[in-house]
Amino acid sequence: MTTSALDPRAARHCHNVINPLHSSLYFAPEYDTGLTGLGLERGSMVYFAGRAAPLGTVGAGTVTATFYNFNHELVARAIPRAWTIAAPAAVLDARLSAAGAVLTRLLGSDAIASKELAETAELALRAAEACHREARPLYAANAGLPVPEEPHLALWHAATLLREHRGDGHLAALAAAELSGLEALVTHTATGKAMTARAFQRTRGWSPDQWSAAQARLRDRGLLDADGELTAAGTELRREIETVTDRLDLAPYEHLGAAGVKRLTELATTFTQAALAAGAFPAQVFGKG
Questions:
Q1: pTM greater than 0.90
Q2: Which residues fall within 8 angstroms of residue 86, CB to CB, at 6 or more apart?
Q3: 230: which strand partners?
Q4: Please, which residues have CB within 8 angstroms of residue 113's CB and are 6 or more apart in sequence?
Q5: 222 three-state secondary structure
Q6: What NCBIfam families does its record include (predicted)?
Q7: Domain range annotation of the chain
Q8: Which pLDDT belongs to residue 285?
Q9: pLDDT (tens digit per residue) in 131-171
């Protein structure tokens, strides 16, 4: 175990205000339009193909493994068939074009052209220089892509790198906690800080019966109570998962340094707040219902 002068909470907060600049893409009409324009099917196929395209023409097993919390049967209905419709290179081009359109719509042309946005991109890319490829397949695949020249596209690319780097580490923490993908979703929903159970079931391909069975397993482990809420043990497990994730994701923020992390957090907060105010995410999918 390593020690660090940088507060892991500061690194986590920095990630949390950068991530929406990446993840808003998946909720945007420009993303569906761009990828369905290639012939891909709206919904799961678009999502799986767009996020998995940096990996190349992989099969359903690889996507299920790297995405972790999706029902494999849902994945297998879209992958690898998606690659017979659109090659990964074409998907990547459409994805980046959509990301640029989404950020421009959410932030406005003045913000896109601002020196502050260019500074945000520069700082985020500098942080990503210290990300690790080992055991981080989604990060490593995206790290092999060229950095776009336009600052807002470079920012989206950097946010993607930082998001997938933390995400790959988070999956390692979930696996070490002996939570399946579905059980991870159930416990995450029980924190009240995630998408609703219905939204997760719809988008991840899990049936209500499968969800209920996972809840029963978690109750047997003492992690959920009879009402589906986290017990003290469940709350502690989720806390430990985040602590491990923080530790595995500290390197890019240590590389940036405390002053750089503070500045990146300030800048990214401004842009993320603007994106949220512009309706970047549908409110109805969040909560515990």
A1: yes
A2: 35, 38, 39, 40, 49, 94
A3: 224
A4: none
A5: coil
A6: SCO6745_fam_HTH
A7: 8-279
A8: 56
A9: 999 999 999 999 999 999 999 999 999 999 999 999 999 99
